[in-house]
Design a protein that fits this description.
Elements (H helix, E strand, L loop, with lengths): L9 H8 L3 H9 L6 E3 L3 E3 L2 H4 L1
Antiparallel strand pairs: 1-2
Pfam families: HTH_17
Organism: Ancylobacter vacuolatus
Protein name: Excisionase family DNA binding protein
């Protein structure tokens, strides 16, 4: 059974890209990085938006 890839936390995106978590959050805030929220607060970034 193939499951879709799990979405990433801002922290994990920052580690992949070699930048700060603040930079990732700023990109989300500016609308330059696709994301969604779980439970109203938890940010998640689809793997497709990172690659």
């Amino acid at each position: 059974m193939n499951l879709p890839p799990r979405p990433l936390l801002p922290k994990h995106v920052a580690e992949r890209w070699g930048c700060s978590e603040r930079t990732v959050r700023n990109m989300i805030r500016a609308g330059r990085l696709k994301h969604f929220r779980l439970g109203g607060r938890l940010l998640r970034i689809p793997l497709s938006a990172v690659e």
